[in-house]
């Protein structure tokens, strides 16, 4: 049994119009991890995700879920989609029912569960995303951030092992981005493997256990957030930016203002602690 919950082997994908979107992608995702796919528009993030849960079928290569190669028949696709849920970038493309409750119950009803179990799952999913009190409200009248959370509940109700979020914080303000990231962390605490794509280097750096950088449909590099964002050549070639926290840290370190042995900070709090532990920094 593989220690990886999800893998791709030599995955290539060509769209019908001839666009070669992915070329030989080999990824191995560990169970229970927080993984980010980073790369500019058009680098292939969404196409990888659509291959993950069988919405697209690889032109070449394969997708492996829990050690088994995905088969593209109805039975295995249903099983796959129950276990790997995708939350699309735009909730408008995902939501279609009248009320929040109807929307979220739809997926669970398709699983042929009892009415009591459907209700239990819908209530739990809505509570997990902080939308329980809106359950009788019309989806149509919700704000963008609320729709996004309902779209997440849509997936949670299936009890997936992996949730894939395509650009989850794009178009959200900082407050609602934080709210969504908190939901990811809560889900991850429950053992769900969380995979996301993002342009937001600050989020990828602070949040991820592991990062995969895509460029022109290929993997440019993968590694820990520190490995990825300390690689200036990679950042330049993949049109990324260095996360602000890391940039400040590297500047302070290279000018000798902090100990060269300080652990690399992942968030503001950790950076402030390093700065505060060094009295003379206050003079700079
Ligand atoms: N439905 C489609 N038909 C043809 N080409 C597409 C389609 N969707 C995406 N592409 C192309 O595939 C490549 C990868 O796109 P995509 O996976 O959407 O990248 P990302 O999510 O990183 O922005 C791009 O060149 C894009 O133009
Ligand atoms: Mg995309």
UniProtKB/TrEMBL annotation:
GO molecular function: ATP binding
Primary localisation category: membrane
Pfam families associated with the record: ABC_tran (PF00005)
NCBIfam families associated with the record: cbiO
Domain ABC transporter: 6-241
Protein name: ABC transporter ATP-binding protein
PANTHER family in the cross-refs: ENERGY-COUPLING FACTOR TRANSPORTER ATP-BINDING PROTEIN ECFA1 (PTHR43553:SF24), HEAVY METAL TRANSPORTER (PTHR43553)
Entry's family note: Belongs to the ABC transporter superfamily.
Keywords: ATP-binding, Cell membrane, Membrane, Nucleotide-binding, Translocase, Transport
Compartments where located: Cell membrane
Organism expressing this protein natively: Clostridium frigoris
């Amino acid at each position: 049994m593989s220690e990886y919950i999800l893998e791709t082997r030599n995955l290539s994908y060509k769209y019908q119009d001839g666009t070669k979107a992915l070329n030989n992608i080999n990824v191995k995702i560990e169970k229970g991890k927080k993984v980010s796919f980073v790369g500019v528009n058009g680098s292939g993030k969404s196409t990888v995700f659509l291959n993950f849960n069988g919405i697209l079928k690889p032109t070449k290569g394969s997708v492996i879920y829990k050690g088994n190669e995905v088969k593209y028949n109805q039975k295995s696709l249903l099983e796959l989609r129950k276990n790997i849920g995708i939350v699309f970038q735009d909730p408008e493309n995902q939501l279609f029912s009248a009320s929040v409750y109807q929307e979220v119950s739809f997926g669970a009803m398709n699983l042929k569960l009892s009415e009591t179990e459907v209700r239990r799952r819908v209530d739990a999913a809505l509570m997990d995303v902080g939308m329980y009190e809106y359950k009788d409200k019309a989806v149509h009248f919700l704000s963008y951030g609320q729709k996004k959370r309902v779209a997440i509940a849509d997936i949670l109700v299936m009890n997936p092992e992996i949730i894939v979020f395509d650009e989850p914080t794009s178009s959200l303000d900082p407050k609602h981005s934080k709210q969504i990231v908190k939901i990811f962390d809560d889900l991850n605490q429950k053992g769900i493997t969380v995979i996301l794509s993002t342009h937001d280097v600050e989020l990828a750096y602070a949040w991820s256990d592991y990062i995969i950088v895509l460029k022109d449909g290929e993997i440019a590099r993968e590694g820990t957030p520190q490995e990825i964002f300390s690689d200036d050549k990679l950042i330049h070639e993949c049109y990324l930016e260095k996360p602000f926290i890391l940039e400040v840290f590297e500047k302070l370190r290279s000018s000798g203002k902090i100990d060269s042995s300080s652990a690399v900070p992942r968030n503001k709090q950790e950076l402030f602690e390093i700065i505060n532990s060094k009295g003379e920094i206050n003079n700079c």
